[in-house]
Amino acid sequence: MNFRSLLATAAFLAAAQPALAAPIEHKATGLSASSADAGMQITALTDSIIRVRVAQGGKFPEDASWAVPAAVRHQSVNVTQSADGFRTRALDVHLDPQLGLTVNDLQGRTIVADAANPLSFAGRGFMLRKKLPIDQRIYGMGDKTGGMDRRGAAFVDWNTDFFGFAPWSDPIYKSIPFYIGVASDGYAYGLFLDNSWRSNFDFGHRDADAIELSAPDGPIDYYVIAGPTVADVVRNYQTLTGRAPLPPQWALGYQQSRWGYSSDKEVRAIASRLRSDQIPADVIWMDIDYQEKNRPFTVNKTIFPDLKKLNTDLNAEGVRLVAITDLHVAYLPKQGYAPFDTGEAGNHFVRKADGSLYVAPVWPGPAVFPDFTRAATRSWWGGLYNDFVADGFAGFWNDMNEPAVFETPTKTMPVDNLHRIDSDDFAPRDATHSEIHNVFGMQNTRGTYEGMLKLRPNVRPFVMTRATYAGGQRYAVTWTGDNSSTWDHLRLCVQQSLNLGLSGFTYTGCDVGGFVGGASPDLLTRWYEIAAFTPVFRNHAANDAPHAEPWVDGPEHLAIRRKFIEERYRLMPYLYAVAEQNSRTGDPVMRPVFYDYPDALKFDCDSALTFTVGGKLLVAAPPRPESPKDYKVCLPSGGWYDYWTGQPVTETKFTAPNRLDYVPLYVRAGTILPRQPLTQSTMIKPTGALLLDVYPGQDCRGEIYLDDGISIKGDSLRQTVTCSVTPRGVALNFGARTGKFRPWWKQIAVTVHGAAPAQITIADHPKAGEVLIAAK
C-alpha cells in the first residue's frame, strides 16, 4: 500500500462510525439484528455456508447478484437457535452487541472472527475487519500478482488493461473478491465479498493482525465458507458461483498464436510447419490482423479471401481456428457496418452521463461499447457470431473487455457512464460504470457463450476472456494477460494459475514465452516444459516481439519443446478425466501441492514452480530455473514414483539436477494413470492400446473417462480401475462400465511400475472383471 492509500485508510477510519446493534431476532434459517443505524441478516445457505448481509441505515439493498444465481442465494437450511446465534450441522455462529461475528466449528475451533471495530461506514462506503491469526496464510483473489501467499499485501479490485504488468503490479485484469485462509495445519475457510464496485482487500498490510475489506459503495453481502480442507472450500465456493463446464477436448491440446499472423498464407504455413516438424497441435489463434481496419466482425478479404475454406482445410489437418472478437464496435453510422447499425437500432450501446452515446478510441478508432448488462444486448451480441460460426471457427476470444479504452490515463471509460441493467433478478434500472465495470467483461463473455450455444446447441462453446468477475468461469476460460518474457514472469505464471484455480477458474494459462519483449532460447524452452502441464497451453507473442514458435531456436531446443508437448498428448486420457472431474466437483486441474497434501504447507523447500496436475501427477520444476544450481525437492509423505523412470522414490526430500532438458515429474503411489499412444491432434484417434500405468500403493485406483470430446449431450464411458498387491502379483479390478460410448482402443496395455516392472496386454474389458499381473 502506498502513502496515499495509507492516508485514505486513516481518513476512512477517522470518519467511520460503528454500527449499533439491537437484540437478535431468531429465524428458522438464521438470524437478524437491526437498529436505526444498521441491520444485519445472517442466513445458513447450507450447513457449511452462511450468507451475511448488512444494511446501512437499516435499509437492505436489492437482493441480486451477477455472481451467485438467485436459486442459490435463496436456498437455506434450518438451524438450531442459541442465545447469541445459531448452529448448523457444521457451524456455530455467534453475534455480539456490536454486530461482531464469530463463526466456529462444532469442536470450538474459530473459523472466522471479527476484529475490533468490525463494521464501519463512511458516507456510502464501508469497511469490514476480520482477525488475521498469526499462523494463517491467504490464497485466492484470482490472478493478482505478488507471492502465492497474499498475507502482508493489499489489493484493489478494478479490472485494468495493464500491458507489460510487473510481478508486483496491481490492479490488473480480473476482480475475483474471494480468498481462502489456511492455518498451518491445513485447516481452511473461504470468504467471498459479492460487491462489484472498486474494492480493497488488505491482508495484514496496514494492521498486521487484521483483514480489512472495503468499498466506496455497493452492497455489504458476503459469504463465509467453512472447510475444513482447502478442497472443501473451493468446491463450496463453486456451489455458490458455479462450476466451469467441461471444455471441448481440443482445448486441452497445444495452441499456437501470435499477434501478427496476418494472412491466409501465413496461417497455413504455421499449420504446415507444425505438421512437418511433427509438433502435436490442435489450435491456431487469429488476432486482430484478419479484420478489416481492426473492426470486429469484419474480414479483410484481400489477405483472408475465404475463411470457410481456411477452416475446412485446417480441420482436415487436425487444426482448429479460434478468432478474436473484441467488444469495441467501430463507430460507423450509416456506412453499412452491421454491428453498429443493428446495435444502434436496438439501443445496445453504453451512454454517457448526459444520456448521449459514448464514443471512445480503441483498435478501430472511434468505437462504441455494448451494454452487456441488458439481456437483449447479450442476445444481439451472440447473434453477431452467426457468420463466423458458419465459417467453422471453433471458438472465440474476447479481449480488451476490462473495458480497455485508449488515450485516457484511466485506461477505461468514465465511471459516470450509464448502463441499463435489465437481466436476471435485478430490477430494471440505470447504473453507473462504477458499479458495472468489474462485471463488464464477464457479461461480455456470457453473451458470447450463450450466442455460441444458441447457434450450435449441442457443441461445447469455447470462449477465452481477459477480464472477468467471480462466477465468470461459467462462461469462459482465461489467461493472465500481457505478461513479459522474463524469468520472474515464468514464476509468476505458475502462482497466478494456481490462485486462479483456487478462485474457480481452472482453465487458465499464460502466454508461453511471454507476450512482451521476447524470450531467450533457454527461457522459452523452460516455459514450454512447465506450460505443458498447465490447463491452457498457448504460445502467444506481440507483433513487435521475436517469433516464439517451437522451432525458432534451432533443432536442439525444438527437440526438448516437442518432447514435452508430446508428453502432454500421451497424458491426454488422464488430463481429460481430471477435466471431467472438475466439471462435477470443482477441483482444479492445476493445484498447489497443499490442496491434496496439507503437510506441504510445512515444507522448507523453495517450491515456487511445484504443483500437481489432478493431485496425482506432481511437477517439481526448478524454483530458480535461470540458475544452473541444483535444488531441493520436497514430496508429501505417502510414496511417489519417478514418472520418467517408473521407479519408486525412496526419500521425501532430495536434490534434483537443474538441467534444461529435464523437469522432475512424480506420480503418487496408488495411482493408475491412463495414457495413450502419441497423436498429432485430439482430432486424430490414437492407434494401438490404451495404456494403464500402475503405481502400487495405498488406495490404488484410476479413472477412465471418454466421450466424443465436443458434444454437450451425448454418450460417454466411465470406468474405475483399482489394484491390490497379492502374493501372486498385482491384481487389477475393472469396475462396471457406465455409458455407451465406444472407445477407440481394442486392447489395454498394463505396466506395473516398481523395482521389476511387469507388463501385460489384455483384451478390452467392457464388463467388470479382475486381471492378475504376475510378479516377476
> Mind telling me which CATH architecture of the largest domain this is?
Alpha-Beta Barrel
> Which structural class do the helices and strands define?
alpha+beta
Describe the largest sheet.
Answer: 10 strands, antiparallel
Total count of domains: 4
Strand content: 25-35%
Strands, count: 49
Distance between the termini: 63 Å
C-alpha Rg, in Å? 26 Å
Please give a handful of descriptors for the protein shown.
49 strands; globular; 776 residues; Immunoglobulin-like; TIM Barrel; single chain; eight-stranded antiparallel beta sheet; 20% helix
Summarize the structure in words.
- It is a single chain.
- With about 775 residues, this protein is α+β, with helices and mostly antiparallel strands.
- It folds into four domains: about 5-140 and about 175-240, Immunoglobulin-like (Sandwich), CATH 2.60.40; about 250-570, TIM Barrel (Alpha-Beta Barrel); about 590-670, Immunoglobulin-like (Sandwich); about 670-775, Sandwich (Immunoglobulin-like), CATH 2.60.40.1180.
- The chain is built from 13 helices and 49 strands.
- Helix 5 (about 305-315) links the parallel strand 21 (about 285) and strand 22 (about 320-325).
- The protein is globular.
